[in-house]
Amino acid sequence: MDNGTSSTVLVLTYEFPPAAGSGVQRIAKLCKFLPDSGIVPHVVCAEPPPGHPVDHSLDADVRRAEVTRLAARDPARAISRMMRPAKTVRSRLRPSRTGNVGASAASPGVPASIRVARLISDDDASFWARSAVSAGVRVGRAAEVGAVLASGPTFSVLVAGARVAEQLGVPLVADMRDGWLTNPGTPSEGRRAERARRHQRLVMDSASVVTCVSGPIAEEATAAGARRVEIIPNGFDAEEMPAWDPVADATVRVGFMGRFYGLTDPAPFLRGLAEALAAASGQAPDVRLEVVGPPSERLDAVADALGVTEQVIHHGLLPHDEALALMARMDVGLVTIADVPGADAVYTTKLFEYLGMGLPVLVVGPGEGAAADLVCDAGAGWTVNPADTGALAELLRGLSVEKRGAGRVTTKPDLSIIKTFERRAQAERFATMISEER
Questions:
Q1: 108 in Cβ contact with 67 (< 8 Å)
Q2: Whole-prediction pTM value?
Q3: Which residue of 40, 41, 278, 325 shows the fewest CB atoms closer than 10 Å?
């Protein structure tokens, strides 16, 4: 509720609506609810990069925020443009190929522009962050902001936030949605690793408070020297959650919302599904995976190799509200987290939205990770280690038997725990911290 006063906060974030994806949800919901606590957000963000998906269903969440958009300036794209004249000259000087036209050229491997970008930049936002500093200072002075809130990854945003806050002479709230040095994507050695360590020290020294989505990330921030650390997990917007209403038939629909990449490899789940089908005695389990998200070559290749292509349904990338409505018709919501160093800190936004709609959750990930701990503590589903294919196959067979017999799979979630993850309450915590630190 509006407290009758008004203050402003400068928000720095790389991805912001209408950019699509789970990475935009946390800040979009802050912009939706902060004004109710008397905090007006002024956002500096990137334009959605060319070719990246957009989702205008999130526009209403950010209508009360003042927004300044800067060109994304992806390092690899920028370097590719700079290298283009030299490539043109080389192609003209290179002798024309003759002979066996069926012979394949040698694979170029990783493009040169990406290799150079990895050497000179920390992440996709590195070039953008440089322009965000000057823009943030300009916007911050004009709006007379009382604090800076920077959210990452990408972590160049946090570095930019520290520099903007210093120039404005206001407190910095550094929001860590993933681990930084513990992130599987952060190099552990070499120049980029040293830059990451140096930049993390800069941000931890500068921040009045560091907010983290999980306990392991908070431990990293504390070890890096943060003065004040608060755990504020991801969450769900109760105002937009559809009620769980699974399709009333014998098929167990396991839904996945998002994209598959290295940390969210679909292979462990598909191996469990293949074993469940192959080892069935009597009636074979009726289980399928329904994916709401962009195409995945990895998913298709593994499904084909394991012979479960017919059990995988693609719905494509949908607007967020449509994706939620489709997931509410599933029997189980899938979270996949590879069992690699740093993965124990990972929470995914989809997990909280599954909880918010009452959808039972299956975590295929580290047994002692933040996501698995939450599902176990809330009594909201099941957790299986990615390496335990047999246990996953047995679970899927059991869910199929339960669905055939009872009409749905069931859990007994602790609603008092789940309620703590509502976005409005989390925005109120952010508002309190911002007011305290001003």
A1: no
A2: 0.81
A3: 278
